[in-house]
Structure formats: structure tokens, C-alpha cells
């Protein structure tokens, strides 16, 4: 159970920033709006579009450190995208990059929560499924909550329709709503030490 201000740093790419959402909320804004805390909650989204896990690993610690407070309950949300596939990173490299981020967060005593990459181009489907499973395994081994976005959305009609209505990569209002629902129903409140008030 947290005491005092709850401060969440969300690190990730354009999906963490809610790019493409006409409501400008993304999944982070929707989840924040549904998270009722007894103490103030500050959500800081530190996003870099098109960023691989290698680049994320190189920058997150310094950026997050400037936004933590010894008086706050500081936590880390790692929102993973699909850039590792476009950059042709090996699964082993992607796994190692996430492992290093989670290990450093543990050293800093920052509880972590990992959100996996959602489906994108159908051409990348198999590779993205493998990447999501690999990220999930890394999180499981470290007892860190992991939201599998790929499996439930890969054949979801509303998700696919939302992607098709846009550029084929970024979700719109409906897609971000689905992402938020998955986060809220995959241990989010328990991770924050809050009662699960989701209907």
C-alpha cells in the first residue's frame, strides 16, 4: 500500500503518448482517469516515437530519476512498442534490453509494470507474437506484472477495424479504449495496492 503522492513514470513510444487518438487520451489517459487513489497521483509520460528497447534502455534512467521524489511512491510503467521488429533486433537483444530496465528499476526500488506491444501490420504478426511472448517471459521471471496486448487483440474485430480506419499502425479512440481495458483488467489496481473497482 502506497503512502503519500503516487508518482508514475510511463516510458515508451508513440503508443504510450496516445498518438492517433482524436480524444488525445491514449490508453494512459484512460487508465489514469479510471484509477481512483486516496492520495494524489501524478502520471508522467516520457515517450519517444519509434524508439527501440535499446534506445529506451539508454535514456530512461536519467529521465525518470529527474522526476522521482523521495517523498513519493515512485513507480515505473514500461510501455513497449513494435520498433524492435522494424529495427530487426533479435529476440535475445530485446529480452536483454527489457531485463536490464527491470533490473535497474528493482535496484532503484521502483516497482515496475510492463505493457506489451499491440498488434500492428499483419505482415509482422508472427514476429510480434514472439516478441510479446518473450517480453512476457522476462517480466514473469522477475515477478513483474505483464499485460499481453498482442494475443487478445490480434483477431479482435474492433481493434482491426480501428487500425484499418487510420494508418494501419496507430489505433484510434476505440483501439486505445481496448488497450486501457486490458491494462485495468490485468492486475493494475493490485499493483498499485488499490481495491479493484472495475466493473
Question: What are the defining features of this structure?
Answer:
five-stranded parallel beta sheet, 10 helices, alpha/beta, 199 residues, 46% helix, 5 strands, 14% strand
Would you kindly provide a written description of the structure presented here, covering whatever features stand out?
The chain is an alpha/beta fold and 199 residues long. Helices cover 46% and strands 14% of the residues. Helix 6 links the parallel strand 4 and strand 5. Helix 5 packs parallel to helix 6.
Nutshell version of this structure?
Helices cover 46% and strands 14% of the residues.
Instruction: Kindly state the number of beta strands.
Output: 5
Radius of gyration: 16 Å
As laid out across the biggest beta sheet, the strand order is: 2-1-3-4-5
End-to-end gap? 22 Å
Helix content: 40-55%
Query: What share of the residues does DSSP label as strand, in percent?
Result: 5-15%
Number of H/I helices: 10
Structural class: alpha/beta
H/E order of the elements?
A: EHHEHEHHEHEHHHH
By oligomeric state, this entry counts as single chain
Shape: globular
Q: Biggest sheet, in brief?
A: 5 strands, parallel
Low-confidence stretches: none
Please state the average pLDDT score: 94
Helix-strand blueprint:
Elements (H helix, E strand, L loop, with lengths): L5 E7 L1 H4 L8 H8 L7 E7 L5 H13 L7 E7 L3 H4 L4 H17 L4 E4 L9 H17 L4 E2 L2 H4 L3 H9 L7 H12 L3 H4 L8
Parallel strand pairs: 1-2, 1-3, 3-4, 4-5
Helix pairs in contact: 2-9, 3-5, 5-6, 8-9
